[in-house]
Write a structure and sequence with these properties.
The chain is α+β, with helices and mostly antiparallel strands and 136 residues long. The chain has helices at 23-27, 38-69; strands at residues 4-11, 21-22, 80-83, 95-100, 107-111, 125-131.
Length: 136
């Protein structure tokens, strides 16, 4: 992965995950049914690899920023993946990973694009992480 800034935001607890999908579901692309040609098979493999690499990068970023944003390294349940409906300079889906901390419910949002502050909601902290090479 090339060098670029990742953004981490910690926000108060939420129990609303509408519009997001559990990470495990995100990692497995939509079933194509029976594969009728190798291209369909390889397309799915490529999608899985891209999504897995993105998720690993996001988790590495969260671990890197843990002290700065207050993440203690635990989950309350599976992380979720969401996307915002606008373009970004990297010409990819503006997706984000949401992790809910187990002990107090604080939520952490990790993205490879700048995150807008949520309207009418307190933001605990933010961090920008520049990783040159991820050890995945």
């Amino acid at each position: 992965m090339s060098s670029r800034e990742w953004h981490v935001m910690s926000v108060p607890t939420t129990d609303t995950f509408e519009g997001m999908v559990p990470l495990a579901l995100y990692l497995s692309p939509a079933a194509q049914g029976d594969y009728d040609c190798p291209q369909s098979f390889w397309y799915d493999v490529q999608q899985i690899e891209d999504r897995l690499n993105w998720a690993k990068s996001a988790m590495n970023v969260l671990e890197e920023a843990a002290d700065e944003v207050g993440w203690q390294g635990d989950f309350r349940h599976t992380p979720y993946v969401g996307a915002l409906p606008w373009s970004n300079p990297f010409d990819e889906v503006p997706r984000y990973l949401l992790v809910k901390q187990n002990n107090n419910g604080t939520c952490f949002i990790v993205s490879a694009f700048p995150l807008p502050s949520p309207p009418d909601q307190r933001v605990f902290s933010t961090a920008v992480v520049r990783l040159r090479q991820l050890s995945c």
